[in-house]
Amino acid sequence: MSGTAKGENDKMKAVKYLGNKQVRVIEIERPCPAVGHALVRVVASGICRTDVELLYDQPQPLEVIGGHEIAGVIEEANGLNRFQAGDRVLVNCHVTCGKCKHCANGDLIFCPQLRVFGFDVNGGNEEYLSAPESCLRSLPDDLSFEVGVLLNDALATPYHAVKKAVRAGDRIGIIGMGPVGLMAVICAKHFGATVAAFDRLARRLDQARSFGADVAVNTAEDDAKNVARELSGGDGLDAIVECSGASGAINVGCDLLKVRGVLALVGVCLDLRINPTEKILFKELSVVGSRNCNSNELEELIELARKAPSLSDVITHRFPIEEAAEAYRLAEQRKGIKILLTP
Ligand SMILES: [Zn+2]
Ligand SMILES: [Zn+2]
Question: How far is the CA of 328 from the centre of ligand 1 (A)?
Answer without folding.
Answer: 14
